[in-house]
Write a structure and sequence with these properties.
Length: about 800
């Protein structure tokens, strides 16, 4: 669980979870609200739901929760409005105003009503303003159409008059009069419509009108340079001004319907130039007036939102706390007298004094005549698991909890995970150059810890930041194992002295180790740099890392079995000690413990014995002579004894435990026809609880099958788990070879061209390949493999992981939850 601050608590102990107790609180109804509030500030009590049979609407405080939900909705509305207006809630601590929840509810209601009214008025004014802007554009653009048409018509008339004056004849006046009379009788009055249509719809708009009226229209359009805000949608849109000339009412009706379908906004227009100018002046005046009104309205709205923003954090915190208090109160049961509420919950034993102090303080502050009653209940129910962690150990505990929460007070693998997890990662990742890169990246998170912890980060960034201390240890251990492997981006260095070997002749680099002769003392720390680059490098490192993987795997599996012994001792389970721990230790170490011993003996003596041959024929031909594969005197007899012990340990694990469990069950329930009367109601309740769980029929077949599965799993798992640790060797080899390929085939190859551009390109490719493949993908791969080794190979030896977490009622945890 989370970190507990303050000097009131005992020292942190991660090996076993905190001792828990089931407590009962009887609280007077007049002080219950303040009591729960103080317990929420304390954050050390997990309430049990005593009304689980009731629906949320049938509970006592359903109306108050509904009221808090409505207040939370208003606050969300304010937050949305502030985000739209670019006003951020004040993060500075404000002076706490003494306002109760009823007063806050009224205030929030008034502010919401005022803000909704301001929004509605602002929307109306903004729509009118946008319509006037469009109208002004129509007046200007359409006015240009008519003025240009009038000037061209006047010019044509003058031209015709001058032509008529120049062509004088006897017939002309008569013909002219006849034409004039004929034209005046055939004159048709044309109507027109003006407005704006979106630019992307303009061509389709004209085409539809042309087809609908069969070409009996005349359309003029002009593009507007700047996008305008559409009055209906409120979005900026590029538009064209149009003027459609038509003849007849049927054509007008069709055009109006098409305008409506295309979202074209129509505006009235007059042919009279004088009226046009007056309308432009009038519209311009109204636009300026509306602009002033809008600006003052926006300023007033911003001031209101700023006022809300100054108090928003405090109000939001109050509402969230109040809602959580009533949710908790709904978990309490009413006493028969309906004058007090009864609460039950889990708390750590060390928190008893603090809880009692909070109860006393709440009774005093609420002027209650009767104080709350605190008492510890005895129960056989399994308590929740609670580990007090800090910012360093939290991430390691989360790694364990992801597999399963520890059973109450069983041995916690998180203690050992702090060391073993980063170490096994480093065995696969070992390169002190890459380790330094990983360390520098992690230090950025650690140095900026305070700043980043208060920010909302992305999913991947937040996950990486949460595990910053895990990555820190991973980087440090990687530097350590990298120094052992003597690899810095796959390049060896003589950091701890000169090499112990030298070439016998000039061609020894291309030869095996026989071309090298030892000329000095053994290289003091890690792998001798002379091995890198030789033909025998791969066989040497393969052998070294493979044997090292087996040693580490057997050591960690033994640790897991030893922890099962500590669990058995703590829970006073003698059967698990004699018929689980001892045979498991014998079986594992008779085979793989013996193999580890052979590896160490071979390293110490320099023997050429074939360990594969030794282990195979230990099973197939245990009586055969070992010959050149003998590593020590009496090895044959020792192998026969170990093989016999391994064979005996299998039925030892399988048979006695189910039989003894059956006998214990029979002994426990013999002569229980008569039971003594229980003195108190509490002990009666405990006995009823015990009867419901403890007096179940003992199924020997089920117990035996379960033990059979457990035995087979361990026997086969001992082989498969040991083989699984060879992934340490495989991934270490893969990381080393990839690093070597990038160095030799990219960086050195680019260097060999003696070209600056090729060298720069090579360096860039090398950097990106190193970061992308080795520092990201390989890190993730090694992390997942280390995770598997801990979850499966280590934890399955002792860890049940069937507990449940301790989730106290705490206001400090509300900030991470949604409303």
């Amino acid at each position: 669980m989370g970190e507990v601050r303050g000097g009131c608590c005992p020292p942190m102990d991660l090996f076993r979870s905190e001792a828990m107790q089931l407590v009962q609180l009887i609280i007077p109804i007049e002080s219950v609200h303040l009591t729960v509030s103080y317990l929420g500030d304390l954050g050390l009590l997990q309430f049990k739901d005593l009304n689980s049979e009731k629906s949320p609407f049938q509970r006592t405080y359903a109306a108050q929760i509904k009221k808090c939900g409505e207040m939370a909705r208003k606050l969300r509305f304010f937050k949305e409005q502030m985000e739209k207006a670019g006003v951020s809630p004040s993060s500075k601590p404000v002076t706490r105003t003494d306002i109760d929840m009823d007063g806050l509810d009224l205030k929030l209601g008034e502010l919401e009503a005022e803000l909704v009214e301001m929004n509605a008025n602002n929307d109306k004014l903004q729509r009118t303003y946008n319509e006037l802007i469009e109208y002004k554009l129509v007046l200007l653009k359409a006015g240009e159409f008519f003025s240009s048409a009038l000037s061209s018509a006047t010019a044509q008339q003058r031209e015709m008059e001058s032509r008529q004056v120049g062509e004088e004849s006897l017939d002309t006046p008569l013909l002219a009069d006849q034409e004039i009379s004929t034209d005046s009788s055939k004159q048709v009055k044309l109507g027109f419509l003006t407005g704006l249509v979106p630019k992307e719809k303009s061509l389709a708009f004209e085409r539809i009108i042309f087809r609908a009226t069969r070409g009996n229209v005349f359309i003029r359009r002009a593009a507007i340079e700047e996008p305008v805000i559409d009055p209906v949608s409120g979005e900026k849109t590029e538009k064209n001004v149009f003027v459609v000339f038509y003849s007849g009412e049927r054509a007008k009706t069709k055009i109006l319907k098409i305008c409506e379908a295309f979202g074209a906004n129509r505006y009235p227009f007059t042919e009279d130039l004088g009226k046009q100018n007056r309308m432009i002046d009038e519209v311009s005046g109204r636009v300026s007036e509306l602009k002033t009104t809008l600006d003052s309205g926006i300023l007033h709205r911003s001031n209101l939102l700023q006022t809300i923003g100054d108090q928003f954090v405090q109000w939001n915190s109050m509402v969230r706390k109040e809602k959580s208090i009533y949710h908790t109160l709904n978990m309490l049961s009413l006493d028969v007298t309906k004058k007090c509420l009864v609460a039950e919950g889990w708390s750590p034993v060390f928190a008893s004094k603090q809880i009692q102090e909070a109860l006393q303080r709440a009774a005093f502050d609420s002027n209650s005549q009767v104080g709350a009653i605190f008492q510890v209940l005895h129960t056989k129910e399994s308590p929740p698991t609670y580990f007090r962690t800090n910012k360093f150990t939290t991430a390691f505990q989360e790694i364990v909890d992801a597999y399963g929460v520890a059973k109450y007070q069983e041995a916690n693998p998180g203690v050992y995970t702090i060391v073993t997890f980063p170490f096994l990662f480093a065995v696969m990742f070992g390169d002190w150059g890459h380790g330094i890169c990983l360390l520098l990246a992690t230090l950025i998170y650690i140095i900026r810890e305070k700043k980043l912890s208060g920010q909302k980060l992305g999913d991947i960034t937040e996950m990486t930041f949460g595990g910053r201390y895990v990555i820190l240890l991973m980087a440090l251990f990687s530097i350590y194992t990298g120094l052992i492997y003597n690899e810095f981006f796959s390049v060896p260095f003589e950091l701890f002295g000169s090499s112990a070997y030298a070439c016998r002749d000039l061609s020894c680099r291309d030869a095996t180790t026989e071309g090298l002769i030892k000329v000095g003392s053994t290289y003091p720390f890690g792998v001798d740099p002379v091995w890198h680059g030789t033909r025998s490098e791969l066989p040497f490192l393969n052998s070294l890392k493979m044997k090292m993987s087996i040693l580490l795997g057997v050591a960690q599996m033994n640790l897991g079995i030893i922890l099962s012994y500590f669990n058995a001792v703590y829970f006073r389970n003698g059967l698990n000690i004699w018929f689980q721990f001892i045979p498991q230790m014998i079986f594992l170490n008779s085979l793989f413990g013996y193999l580890s011993l052979l590896i160490i003996v071979k390293w110490c003596t320099g023997s050429q014995a074939d360990l594969y041959h030794v282990m195979i024929y230990m099973f197939l031909s245990p009586t055969d002579e070992l010959g050149e594969n003998q590593l020590f005197a009496g090895q044959k007899i020792a192998q026969q004894v170990l093989l016999l012990l391994a064979l005996v340990s299998v039925p030892w694990m399988l048979l006695p435990k189910p039989l003894l469990l059956k006998k214990q069950h029979q002994d426990r329930h013999q002569g229980q026809s008569y039971t003594p009367l229980q003195i108190t109601e509490e002990s009666l309740q405990v006995e009823v609880n015990h009867d419901s769980h403890g007096h179940e029929e003992f199924e020997f077949s089920e117990v035996f099958v379960h033990q059979l599965i457990h035995t087979i799993e361990f026997v086969l798992g001992a082989v498969s788990n040991t083989a699984s640790y060879l992934r340490l060797w495989a991934l270490s080899l893969a990381h080393s070879e990839l690093s070597s390929v990038f160095y030799e085939k990219v960086l050195l190859l680019a260097w060999g061209f003696n070209n600056v551009i090729i060298l720069i390109v090579g360096i860039i490719i090398f950097i990106f390949a190193t970061i992308g493949v080795l520092l990201v993908m390989e890190t993730l791969s090694a992390f997942l493999h280390a995770l598997r080794l801990h979850w499966v190979e280590f934890q399955n030896k002792f860890y049940e992981g069937d507990g449940y977490k301790f989730y106290p009622f705490s206001f400090a945890l509300l900030s991470d939850e949604d409303d």
